[in-house]
Amino acid sequence: MTAIDTMGDSKFTNFDNMSLQSIDEDAELIPLLTSEDEEEMSNEVLPETLPILPLRNTVLFPGVVIPITAGRDSSINLIKDANNGSKVIGVVSQKDKDTEKPTVNDINVLGTVARILRVLKMPDGNTTVILQGKKRFEVAEVLTEKPYITATVRETSEERPDHNDPEFLAIIESIKDLALRIIRDNPNIPSEASFAIKNIQSNSFLINFVSSNLNLNVDDKQELLEINNLQERALATLKHMNLELQKLELKNDIQSKVRNDMDQQQREYFLHQQMKTIQEELGGVSHDDEIFEMRKKAKKKKWDDKVKEHFDKELSKMQRMNPQVAEYSIQRNYLDLFLDLPWNEFSKDKFDLKRAQRILDRDHYGLEDVKQRIIEYLAVLKLRNDMKSPILCLYGPPGVGKTSLGKSVAEALGREYVRISLGGLRDEAEIRGHRKTYIGAMPGRIVQSLKKAGTSNPVFILDEIDKLSSSHQGDPSSAMLEVLDPEQNNEFYDNFLEMGYDLSKVMFIATANNLSTIQPALRDRMEIINVTGYTIEEKVEIAKRHLLPKQLKEHGLTSKDLTIGKPQLEKIVEGYTRESGVRSLEKQIAKMVRYAAKNIAIEEEYEVKVTNAIVEKVLGPARLERDKYENNDIAGVVTGLAWTSVGGDILFIESILSKGKGALNITGNLGKVMKESATIAMEYIKSNAERFGIDSEVFDKYNVHIHVPEGATPKDGPSAGVTMLTSLVSLFTQKKVKKSLAMTGEITLRGKVLPVGGIKEKILAAKRARIKEIILCKDNEKDILEIKKEYLKGLKFHYVTDMHEVIDIAITGQKVKNAKKL
Ligand SMILES: Nc1ncnc2c1ncn2[C@@H]1O[C@H](COP(=O)(O)OP(=O)(O)OP(=O)(O)O)[C@@H](O)[C@H]1O
């Protein structure tokens, strides 16, 4: 759009900046057209023929002055000729601006007669000509087309309204108004242009001037030029102006909105910068980067909407905090936990059961039925394929490989492995965490372990679940109930996390030494798998295949540095350990390995192949005599079988008589039930004295003392009943008890023998103690049938229902050496 410049009070127009620069500074300025000028102009007589100058991209309106740059040869020739002659030419617009050599068909026939005001040679070689429109004309007949078009022309009539026509005047006022508003709103038009508008007196010039300067394309301008009725032309111009104004307003609106947004952003940026500087001044560091990093990490988490929303909320809370205050680091810890915890991140299960079997066999000797049950569980898991895992509980004495079995299951499944020990845990918050408002609050052990695991479906070992205890700090078992309940554990609530966490894909494996101390509700939720202890032979195998190689490796040695033969391993098992599992066996083997390591380190000769003498040299004299009471020369000493949480064991019941009045003393740290068994046995003998060949008078002449050695170990349970009774019968009859015999069973006052538990462990303990015969209740026969044949090798079982049968088997006819005369 051509700009208008008015200087001082003189009514001159000039051209846009570009033109101004091109034109000589001192060039005469073109006066604005007055009504008189216009009058004069319309009275000018048109010549009959005119050279026709086609314009590519503008339309010349009567009265308006515009600069034209002529580049085409035909145009330059035309201007040169006309400038030297009458200076009057016909100006028309091209229909298509891209036509290089327009003929008569390529131009609009209605144009404007123009006077050449000035011709300037521009520095770039082009010719600029300043034209002023005079009046409209029509091309009548083309005379020549070369070197430029000449044609006969005729004047186009124009209908003008009456000068005082109020409608026309209103339109003119509106045009002025809008023009001023457009100038005001369009930053590209210098504000001085408004002076020009205000100073235009001629109405038709105003219309032409505005039409010429409006931001319209050539076709629209041509259309305006072609309107013969001035009032109509004024109206059409007004419409275009309206449109232009609307566009401008819209544009300005958008721009101011964008500017507002920018301003807001800039303001925030500015404030942040200021805050950063203040923080740095105060010695702190800015937390912007921290928050940015956290946001970046958060994008990668597979959170559901609820967690995401919560995190975003908490993060913006942190953003508003001062990093110097204590709450800030609490909040930071809290949000870090969200980022570090695995959410819906699962490792893919490997359900190759053959591989699983191989791994279990590789890591554990024996335990066939346990491994079998584990494989069955994995098979079910594979078939169900809902990733919901069963909760297993491996139950048995210490050191039998429960924990390490769990580890192998994790490896077999290809899952991560985590373990927590629940032994002695009393505080519920250990499991569920503390609310984060507490000082030093932390998430519970479950959530902490999952963070460590890094996946949401690890194998999770809950060691010693039987040792959970409750106290005034809450009952951890009730929290465990939620962990282990498949119905609830998909929303396990941790106090620190302040929201539920899905544990349903975690495979929990609990271990326990004692089923009776597990809370019944917890026990109900688990599949119990019994892992019993080992026989001597098995322990030797485990030592040979696993413990020795493992210890050698841990000490940086190989089998070339130390070999321990089977007889020596057996010696170690028998002479230096007394356990169902292999934990202390492993310790003894470690001692043997250290012996080799020490000699290698100090470069001293030593025997690589371990002999019995070396075992004794390293481990000291064998500490445990296998069977102290193997000889049966003393009356009243009987071998019983006991079950403890550390496995089966043999125990001895001793009883003696002393002069007195029939009192019964019981010692050996016995529990209430065991004491009652002693009383029952005593009373039973008294009432059946005759049958056992005892003179009933002796009961009043002697006191009886029953003792169970190893007084430091508390003992309880009914299963020593038969042993106590046998001991008392032997005592009162002074007869020998059968050699290498052990027994277990509860007695009633009627002399019935009742079944007892822990049979498998007891049998293993009996075997270790080289017992040959065992008396059991008839009802315990089914337990024996469940035990593998090889464990039973060399054992003879007597199944009884009545005490008389026990006495018949256990008490020999022979009196003991130095038998008392009662
Ligand atoms: N059958 C076995 N084959 C090979 N190694 C075994 C076997 N049984 C136990 N072990 C080894 O004995 C050690 C003790 O086992 P582990 O810690 O698993 O015992 P545990 O039954 O979990 O004991 P606790 O009840 O005290 O936790 C481990 O090094 C384990 O590898």
What's this, in brief?
It is found in: Cytoplasm. With 822 residues, the chain is α/β, with parallel strands linked by helices.
Oligomeric assembly:
single chain
Number of strands: 28
Overall CATH architecture of the largest domain:
Roll
Distance between the termini: 142 Å
Spell out which ligands are present: adenosine-5'-triphosphate
Structural domain count: 5
Give the low-confidence spans. 1-30
The radius of gyration is 56 Å
Number of helices: 29
Name the CATH class of the largest domain.
Mainly Beta
Largest sheet: 7 strands, mixed
Question: Descriptors for this entry?
Answer:
Lon_prtase_N, 43% helix, Rossmann fold, seven-stranded mixed β-sheet, sequence-specific DNA binding, nucleotide-binding, 29 helices, binds adenosine-5'-triphosphate, alpha/beta, disordered N terminus, five-stranded mixed barrel, 5 domains, 18% strand, rod-shaped, ATP binding, 822 residues, Archaeosine Trna-guanine Transglycosylase, Chain: A, domain 4
Q: What would your notes on this structure say?
A:
The protein has 822 residues and is an alpha/beta fold. The protein folds into five domains: 12-223, Archaeosine Trna-guanine Transglycosylase, Chain: A, domain 4 (Roll), CATH 2.30.130.40; 288-340, no CATH class; 353-530, P-loop containing nucleotide triphosphate hydrolases (Rossmann fold); 536-619, Helicase, Ruva Protein, domain 3; 638-815, Ribosomal Protein S5, domain 2 (2-Layer Sandwich), CATH 3.30.230.10. It has 29 helices and 28 strands. The protein has a seven-stranded mixed sheet. Strands 3-5-6-7-8 form a five-stranded mixed beta barrel. It has a five-stranded parallel sheet with strand order 10-11-14-9-15, sandwiched between helices. Strand 6 and strand 7 form a beta hairpin. Mean pLDDT is 84; it is low at 1-30. The site of adenosine-5'-triphosphate has 20 residues, from helix 14, helix 19 and helix 21. Adenosine-5'-triphosphate binds at residues 364-367, 398-404, 463, 511, 513, 542, 546, 581-583, 586. ATP binds at residues 396-403.
